[in-house]
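Q: Fold this one first, please.
A: Sequence and structure below.
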Amino acid sequence: MIFVKKDNTVLGLLPLMFRNEKRKNIFPYRRIKFLASENTDFNIVLADPMDVEEVTTAGLNWLCSGALRWELLILDDLVEGNPIIRAIPKWAERSHVVLNPIIGKYYYINLQRPWDDIWGETSKKFIRKNINVARNRLDRSGCWQILVNPFWETKEIADQAIKISSLRGFGAGISSLRREAYKKFLTDVIDINRRKGIFNSYWMILNGTVIAYEFIFEQREVCYAWTGTFNPEYARYWPSRLLLLEIMKRYHEKRFKEFSFMRGEAEYKAKWTPNYKKNYRFIIKNKNDFYGKMIISMEKLYKFLNRTYLPTSSIKR
């Protein structure tokens, strides 16, 4: 955590974490990212928008001062409009740091339009046709319904979600310790945000069996699709597509501004909407100390040797 003070007053906070690794399984290597960045979709500097540039500049200057050893800094999941996106290139130019920003996508649907306009932007084959088929198949298969925020204990919500996710292969191959850690993380996230009143769970039930779920966060008239999946045994009903559609309709009727698919560029998102916001990722290598320069030189040498002495038989043609 980098606290930036001005006149003995905290101006802002740059929330970061680091992980120690081994480069090529030999050299100590320290990677810095935003705090909890592997479990979040949006990252920010904690400061007044007017102070973000000053806080960012001071924080990055401290990192480059040599007070902390590090080799790689990754600042990512920065949605367009975030003031840090302007601050980082300005700092880099003054500090003579070369930046090659990587730009991804946050897909979203503007809900402040007639429903026919929203529906008309969806893929005819992937969404509209399959939704109609899904309804017909569900109607013929028995009784189906969508539950919204059932009065279940938090543990039951997490258990149901993990059970369905495991059927899709999520979590396969990981240790029981990591599996328990994820379960605790999921339970805590649900519990905390239920108490805040911003967490919503949606469940599709067919003949008494949960076949799909979706977890949604609500904040400032924007709904965020955090996570969800379906039981693969019921894939022929396209339950996730139908469930997402009903959720979107619900928030359109509630006059929300936006439905956000959050980070990630999974192909299915583009089937729902062509609209997206840019997701910025900045990668900075530490060239300010001898060890950092040595690591960069070693990586260049390693790549050169691989290209130069790669066996002819292994070259793809």
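Q: Good. Now the second chain.
A: Here it is, same layout.
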Amino acid sequence: MKIRLIHLAAFVASVLVMGCAHSPISTQVDRSFRYQPTDFEKQVGYPPCKVSVPLTQDEALRAAERSGAHNFDKSSEWSEMIALMETGDQLRYVWCIPKGRGGMVFFALYRGLNMVTKVHTVMLD
């Protein structure tokens, strides 16, 4: 009985760790947002990606830090994306995690429903 409890505890712990490794870094999903998949995503057959609610620059940088992308604000890709921002644009966290291997996690700059540009923080293999 004691061994079963140990195995159960180990299983639960491993599931929690795996779930955290693929979590959206504590950002809230915007279920009303109609994400438009890129040609690449259509080509490789990704499921629909999840998209966060709009984020401030500070919220996006904190999410990047939590995902392991330290000093993300110093990257040229981030600076280029921020330079493209216009009034009304939205920064969103996007995660595309198919069943099985692979996946993409990135920040995207949206103008309406159109993705202007994106910056990858994590590529999963």
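Q: Anything worth noting on the second one?
A: The chain has a mean pLDDT of 74.
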